Amino acid sequence: MVQGVYGHLPMEIQQRIAMRMDIPLSEISGVISFYSFFTTQPKGKYVINICLGTACYVRGGKNIVEKLEELLHIRVGETTEDKKFSINVMRCIGACGLAPAISINDQVYKQVNPDKLSLILATYE
Ligand code: FES
After folding, report:
1. Computed from CA positions of residues 51, 56, 60, 62, in that sequence, does the dihedral angle turn out positive or negative?
2. Are 17 and 55 part of one and the same domain?
3. I want to staple 100 with a disulfide (CB 3.0 to 4.6 A). Which of 61, 75, 84, 116 is the partner?
4. Domain shared by 55 and 112, yes or no
5. Starting from the edge strand earliest in sequence, which strands make up the sheet with 107-109, in order?
6. Domain membership of residue 7 as a residue range
7. Pocket test residue of 48, 88, 96 for ligand 1, highest count of atoms within 8 A of CB
8. E strand or H helix at 44, and its extent?
9. Longest alpha-carbon distance in the chain
């Protein structure tokens, strides 16, 4: 809920959560660093999650990662300078039958291939 409000969970916010919930800061930080859903860095307006679960990986998910890094000039875990796009990888977004899949915010794209990525990104211009 806090990440939904602030967009990310920097140390100052983790400290406030720990104090308000009367839980050690180490426990709060441990949960945040363990789950990939949480982030301590601000994300772009559009967060691209590339699935690297088994089905997507064997059907070319790694090529999707490489092409997006090339198109956006950032690496996985980074955000473009204009704060428009961030790239993350995740495990299975529930579209295994139509792998490889990515999501951009709440929109899921199935049977993605590197050639389709420019067209997909263009819809976010
Ligand atoms: S492995 Fe990619 S959607 Fe399930």
Report:
1. positive
2. no
3. 61
4. yes
5. 85-90, 46-51, 102-104, 107-109
6. 2-34
7. 96
8. none
9. 50
CATH number at residue 98: 3.40.30.10
Distance of alpha carbon 72 from alpha carbon 78, whole angstroms: 10
Residue 113 shares a structural domain with residue 67: yes
Q: Which residues contact 33 (CB under 8 A, 6 or more apart)?
A: 40
Atom of ligand 1 nearest to the CA of 98: 3
Residue 41 is assigned to a structural domain of this protein: no
Distance 25 CA to ligand 1 centre (A): 34
pLDDT one digit per residue (tens) for the chain, 125 residues: 999 888 899 999 999 999 999 999 999 999 999 887 788 988 999 999 999 999 999 999 999 999 999 999 999 989 999 999 999 999 899 999 999 999 999 899 999 999 999 999 999 98
- What is the model's pTM? 0.81
CA 33 vs CA 40, 74, 102, 125: distances in Å: 8, 22, 23, 32
For residue 6, give both structure tokens: 């602030």
Task: Give the residue, out of 49, 56, 59, with the most ligand 1 atoms within 8 A of its beta carbon, to mutate for a pocket test.
Answer: 56
